[in-house]
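Hi R.,

Here's the chain you asked about this morning:
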Amino acid sequence: MPQWIHHTSQPRPHLTRVLLAVLLALVMQACSSPRSTPAPVEDKKAINSQGVWINGGLARMSSSNATPLGAENAGKPGYYTVKQGDTLIRIGLDQGQNWRDIVKWNNLDNPNNIEVGQVLRVQAPNAPALPSKSNEQAASGVVVKPVSSPALQSPSNAEAVTGPSPSPMAKPPAAETASADEISFSWPATGNLNAYFDEIKNKGLDIAGKAGDPVLAAADGKVVYAGSGLRGYGNLIIIKHNNTYLSAYAHNQTLLVKEDQSIKRGQKIAEMGSTDTDQVKLHFEVRRQGKPIDPLKMLPAR
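And here is the predicted structure, written out as tokens:
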């Protein structure tokens, strides 16, 4: 075999070392180079055309140490201090108000821009003060008549205590307002009851049914919310009946009404479903001035 063929067929030791050094350098450079990371996407809260919070609209913590907006009104009647996890839908339900009214009363440019500690007006300007929470009898829906009312005194007792019988007078405004706002409810669905009212564990009734069963308005009123922006309620409808009562219909499969729509008692407003829950049912709440009450006290016996 020729000599030149023999030499070229053998690897040269110094060339091998050079190649290995170059490869090692390339590997080390690749490991030490910073990996490119996609730029974070700014999460802008928004409301769609139906007024539904796309990502919940949760109250955010303030990024500064500035005094919260409206702090001067904290603790005053008709005002509410925002807590972590609040949304305007939740606040409206708990206060017995239309969330859009809260936006208007507080001149909010963006309903999602509420902060923990911010104080919001939750009662219409110049509206009469709500009954004191200490008045349990009034809060329960029972019309309380003053002891001094002529209707509660016999003529002889009235003369003995106050002299001659007073001239007839109108009922006190508080009793008249409470009486005027009392309404009659009907059942929103025909199924059996799966769960009863409990102030802590269940703020309404759970009514069983099949997917697609009709959900009916329990009383006349106006839709103040229709959407899925309140966690735990799925597709939800809230109807405001008057200045005292709201009713809520949760976990629907399909919503058949929209916000600001006037509703009649017995009107089909949705189809039963299982959104945001583990079974098909209607969760039905009645709220008196924002406070959940037992719907069975308002519904006729079956």
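One quick note: The radius of gyration is 33 Å.

Cheers,
M.
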